[in-house]
Amino acid sequence: KKARSASVGNASPAVYIGQQGNGEVVENPIKGAECNEVFVEGFPDNYDDMCPAPVTLEKLQDTSVEFDKLVYQDKSAKASRLKLESKFVDFFFPNDHPTHYKLPVGDLARGKAQSPQRLVWKSLSEVFPNAEFIHDNKPRPEDVVQGKLGDCWFLGALATLANSPVHFESVFPKPWPSPNAMNPADPKYEFSIFRFRFWKWGKWIEIVVDDRLPFLAHANGTLLNPPQLAFASCKHYSRDFWVPLVEKAYAKLHGSYAALEAGSSADAMIDLTGGIVETIDIKCMGSSTKELPKVLKGDQEWDYSVLWTRLKKAQRRGFLVSCSNKSEYDPDRRYNNILANANGIITSHSYSISRVLTVRVRNKKGMNIFHKDSYHLVAVRNPWGEHAWNGAWSEYSKEWKSLSKSKKQKLGLTLAESGTFWIAIEDFIKHFTHVNICRTVNITFLSLHHQWTRHHFFDSWKVPGLAGGCINHSTWYKNPQYRLRVSKESMVIISLQQKEIRLFGSHCGYEDLSIGFLLLHIETNRKTRVHVPMDCVETKTKFRNSRQISFAEVLEEGTYMIIPCTFTPNCEGEFLLQVYTFCSSSCKKMIRDVPKKKIFHSRVKNALSITVHNAYLSKMKGIHTSLTPYVRVTVEGTEHKTNCRTKTNPRFNEGLLFYPKHPKTAVVKFEVYHSGVLLDTQLGHCSIPVSSIANKQPGVRYTVKSFLYAKDPLESQVEGSIEFSIYFHSQPELL
């Protein structure tokens, strides 16, 4: 294949590996061809021509092969690591491709307009002979400092990762480079190969990079004094370099540094942990989840106990937590000034939350000297390393000064970390709008903790037939459907992810779909797709054009249908559905609209859906409190029963599905039994003809409350009753 040369600005011609705008792949026949100096003036006019050809969705069909090609995994370099005789140079992410290092146009990440600067790519061993990967093998959140790239969303998540050794080692696999391993003169020199891992599309992807990084330089090409990295760096920039190296690997994963401009910290948390991120909208928390008695409106105070409890639980379980003010993702953000408010909080900016605690301070105004006031504090960090909160409990506030030095040391309170500040939870909910909590679910068999059951599906919305949109449209059921069976009352976590547009490049023309899913409580014995809305546990999630939508609630024992969908019909896209249950469960994709035809049986022509809601047994004669009732339902000899309950007035809310052949003569019989040790005892029964429902308006669910009668017809018993609903349709493919 023919190699081509490219030049940008004042850059000398160089050969690079990549994909030209015409789709032609070029290779570098001359190993060692390098271009050290590039004059950067933001996005050039011919940016689209210089970018690689847009990646199509078809290229990602095979996640085990094509995805590896997309992220440029240098497997040959890893395999021959011990055979290298010279310094490793990453030709799959060279420093002379203009789309790999571009600075954003106009205002930079710090909100200050900058004049065009010269970038000089240098090896770390050339600039810092004593450079270390991680000093003392102890990564610290305060090491993370943002540079001239608007990737605070990634760096904020990276700072929280430093507090979790388990998560950190997932991204930074051991063994780590030893001290002085970057110095060629040292016997421990390891050829400057650094590997990192990121979670993409259901699996860990390993990325290999070299130690060449972009430095800022004067117009004559000489480095600044002291040397300054153009993008992210460590606080001790002349010592640690794990932050800029992992940023380079993350940029390589997405094709360029420019691809990291603006984003959501929730996406970064997913990539760094493989976990499930729950985004909490603080301003809507009271009205949407009904967890808070008041909704925050203006300066109105509200009950913060629920959010505080969530933050404490996240800290106790080692979850990553971040927060932001207003929208985290703004396409126009890189063209606007990003300035701090009067209170020091940056708008449209991601922060990391490292700690929460309660401080008790003696109230000097009261007469009771033993009375102490409690304050709930949140430790927040700005990845810039500056611009901190200046209100209550800030560094120079009276609240902070009221604590003695010994008290601060005892509680571990410190403001020595650059960019870290403490803020009371009351002020936190006023000045921040979103909180992201990333939970990782333990599914290992040898775990000492409770084990979760995981189900996952790679699927897509396709036109026609499998892209029906949300429940607001009549075609809502024309989406992929998954039946979930939960063996007992349990916590259930559902995560829906779509293919990340950032992997295709900002120039590809794709946009994130507005996604969500329905969760329906369906019949226990259903083996077909749903076409009519049943009793909804959650009618629908909030639809957002984000990478992931999650749901976490305690569900009762039963059968449910998960229906991932887009807000608008006829939108095609791929998705990953993950379901976690805290008990034994099963999950299966539903394909058929009607039951499979059995041998020597005619085709199903009618469908009858029955939902048993409640039974009232406390007033029945001879009934005692230790009752374990269940309901047996029979139609034309076909019998199904509900699960047992442990109350005299049990709430079942279980559905059963029947296919009567002769609806005009069929009768639905309900029998309530007590589950005994050796023998079940019938408590009462009732019946209703199917024709009484079939002759009414079709497609309508009718709720009935009927008295229960004793087994002996001569001994009528009317104290007990049962409540149920019936839905009949002569076209089973529509039920």
TrEMBL record:
Residues 586-703 form the C2 domain. SMART domains: C2 (SM00239), calpain_III (SM00720), CysPc (SM00230). CDD domains: CysPc. GO terms for molecular function: calcium-dependent cysteine-type endopeptidase activity. The active site is at C152, H349, N382. It comes from the Eukaryota. One of its GO terms (cellular component) is cytoplasm. The keyword Signal does not apply. Keywords: Hydrolase, Protease, Thiol protease. InterPro entries: C2_dom (IPR000008), C2_domain_sf (IPR035892), Calpain_cysteine_protease (IPR022684), Calpain_domain_III (IPR022682), Calpain_III (IPR022683), Calpain_III_sf (IPR036213), Papain-like_cys_pep_sf (IPR038765), Pept_cys_AS (IPR000169). The keyword Hydrolase applies. PROSITE patterns: C2, CALPAIN_CAT, THIOL_PROTEASE_CYS. GO terms for biological process: proteolysis. Residues 87-441 form the Calpain catalytic domain. Belongs to the peptidase C2 family. This is Calpain catalytic domain-containing protein. It comes from Vannella robusta. The lineage of its organism: Eukaryota, Amoebozoa, Discosea, Flabellinia, Vannellidae.
